[in-house]
Amino acid sequence: MIPDIITSYEDLIRYGGNGQTISYETLFWFIEYNPNNPNYNEIEKYSILRNECLQHPLDFKDRLDKGIYKIWTRIPY
After folding, report:
1. Do residues 69 and 33 make contact, with C-beta atoms less than 8 angstroms apart?
2. Which of 24, 44, 61, 66 could form an SS bridge with 9, CB 3.0 to 4.6 Å?
3. C-alpha 45: how far from its chain's center?
4. Pairing verdict, β 30-33 and 46-48
5. How many distinct structural domains can be found in the chain?
6. Quick one: which of 51, 73, 75, 74 has its CA closest to 63?
């Protein structure tokens, strides 16, 4: 069963596809930015996984593992 929140790149790969690539469904998962992050903006608290990957193609994995954001597999509540 897929968790409500993913907080590591390893889990994203595990639940997002066949273990090697992220499936297309993950493109619609929500990103919630950590409020302790200095770049946090209340207006832009949530984004879509696709946007984060496009903005940070080289360090997306590190940002997720460092807790800059978490990924919701359902609409955040």
Report:
1. yes
2. 61
3. 12
4. antiparallel
5. 1
6. 51
Look at residues 76, 26, 77, 75 and name the one whose alpha carbon lies nearest to residue 52: 26
In a domain, 77, yes or no: no
- Stated pTM of the model: 0.73
- Structural domain harbouring 25: 5-72
How is 44-74 classified by DSSP, letter by letter? GSEEEHHHHHHH-TTTHHHHHHTTSEEEESS
Q: Which helix (H) or strand (E) holds 15?
A: helix 9-16
Rounded Cα distance, 49 and 61, in Å:
12
Q: Mind listing the pLDDT tens digit for each residue in 23-63?
A: 555 556 888 888 776 677 777 788 888 888 899 999 999 99
13, two tokens: 């790969």
Is 32 inside a domain boundary? yes
